[in-house]
Automatic annotation (TrEMBL):
Its main location: membrane. The lineage of its organism: Bacteria, Bacillati, Bacillota, Bacilli, Bacillales. The chain crosses the membrane at residues 7-28, 34-51, 63-84, 90-111. It is found in: Cell membrane. The keyword Disulfide bond does not apply. This is Holin. It comes from the Bacteria. NCBIfam families: PRK01658.1 (NF002460).
C-alpha cells in the first residue's frame, strides 16, 4: 500500500508540473509544448540538486512503461480529420518527426546525465 501511495504521489508531481507548465506557456504565449518545458524544469531541478532522482524515479518509470497508452487518443483523432491529413499531412508528419527526434535527443541526454551522476555517486 505504501508503494502505491508513493507511486501515486510521484505521478501526481509530474501531472502538477505539466499543468503548471501548460498554464505558463499559455499565459506567455510561447510556441513550445508545456510538457517539454516541464521536462526541462524537472531536468534543471535534478541538476541543481533541488530534486533527488529517488523522489521521482518510481513514478517516472511507471509513466515510461505506460507511454504507449498516451498515444492512442491522438491516433484515434487523426481518423476524424482525414481531410486535414490529405491537405496538410506532410507538414504535420514533419512536425511530428522533428518533435519526436527532439524529445528523443533531450531524453537521451537527460538519461545519460542521470546515469553518469549515479555512477559518480557510487564511486
Amino acid at each position: 500500500m505504501k508503494r502505491l501511495l508513493i507511486l501515486l504521489g510521484q505521478v501526481a508531481f509530474f501531472i502538477v508540473i505539466s499543468i503548471i507548465m501548460n498554464a505558463l506557456v499559455s499565459i506567455l504565449d510561447w510556441k513550445i509544448p508545456g510538457s517539454l518545458l516541464g521536462m526541462f524544469v524537472v531536468f534543471l531541478l535534478l541538476q541543481c540538486k533541488v530534486l533527488r532522482l529517488e523522489w521521482i524515479e518510481t513514478g517516472a518509470s511507471w509513466l515510461l512503461a505506460e507511454l504507449l497508452l498516451f498515444f492512442i487518443p491522438p491516433s484515434v483523432g487523426i481518423v476524424s480529420y482525414q481531410s486535414l491529413m490529405l491537405h496538410e499531412g506532410i507538414q504535420i508528419f514533419l512536425v511530428i518527426a522533428f518533435g519526436t527526434a527532439f524529445v528523443m535527443i533531450c531524453s537521451g541526454l537527460v538519461a545519460q546525465s542521470i546515469s553518469k551522476r549515479k555512477e559518480h555517486t557510487r564511486s
